[in-house]
Amino acid sequence: MIILAPSILAADFNALGKQINMIEGSGVKYLHIDVMDGNYVPGISFGTPVIKSIRNNTKLIFDVHLMVEEPIRMLEDFKDAGADIITVHAEACSDLAGTVDKIKSMGLKAGVSLNPETSLDKLDLIIKNIDMVLIMSVNPGAGGQPFIHSSLQKIKDLRDKANNIGVTIDIEVDGGIRHSNVMDVLKAGANVIVAGTSVFGGNILGNIDRYNKLFLQYEDTV
Ligand code: DX5
Ligand code: ZN
Asked: Less packed terminus of the chain by CB within 10 Å, N or C?
């Protein structure tokens, strides 16, 4: 199944609740929530108080992307704030396997993210224990950047790797996804599509509708 995960980093924070309700009303299931700590990435976005307050307003699945150094320190806080899926960066964890185990032991889905320069080999020890791999198609830290084209080959290689070892895994792709390139990302083997600017920029419902039509078009070809 193909899933659209709108990233609230590109939302209008002055109208966040309303925009989330609009997204939920359109039938979208995931909300991608980018947490930046000012250390693993230079910028700071928002943390648990914001997540907690939007949790009261929606039943969407909270797909929390932690761009945070040593996230193992704060996994419980994000669970308590309302996360359903927690994704950590392989580069940010000194004990990646332990971090994944902790997310799973809390009863949440676990994702591991790789930066554009990070090799798929980093997944070898944990790929059987996780639910999702997040392939960054920009360098993490900001919305609105151009898609890095070599990510397509990496997605294909990851889909092959997962098939070869017999694991069913979600492949999420994040950064620079637009209506104009999403087909390539789907064809490469991704099934969870993060989109910030291309959902929240302009007409939100129209943008989602265009994505849904492209997803149907893709599904017709497979
Ligand atoms: C980047 C974030 C992304 C970002 C995507 O560090 O992880 O989720 O919001 O934004 P767009 O879709 O605008 O590239
Ligand atoms: Zn993200």
From this structure: C
Backbone angles phi, psi at 183, to 5 degrees: -60, -40
Which residues span the domain enclosing 84?
Answer: 3-219
Query: To test ligand 1's pocket by mutation, which of 174, 177, 178, 208 has the most ligand atoms within 8 angstroms of CB?
Result: 174
29, 217 Cβ separation under 8 angstroms = no
Edge-to-edge strands of the sheet including 30-36?
3-6, 192-195, 170-174, 132-136, 109-114, 85-89, 61-67, 30-36
Residues 6 or more apart whose Cβ sits within 8 Å of residue 35: 45, 46, 47, 51, 64, 65, 66, 67, 68, 78
Number of domains in the chain: 1
Is the C-beta atom of 71 inside 6 A of ligand 1?
Answer: no
Cβ(92)–Cβ(72) below 8 Å? no
CA separation (Å) from 192 to 31, 56, 106? 11, 24, 23
The CATH number that applies at residue 71 is 3.20.20.70
Q: What is the pLDDT of residues 118-147, one digit of tens each?
A: 999 999 999 999 999 999 999 999 999 999
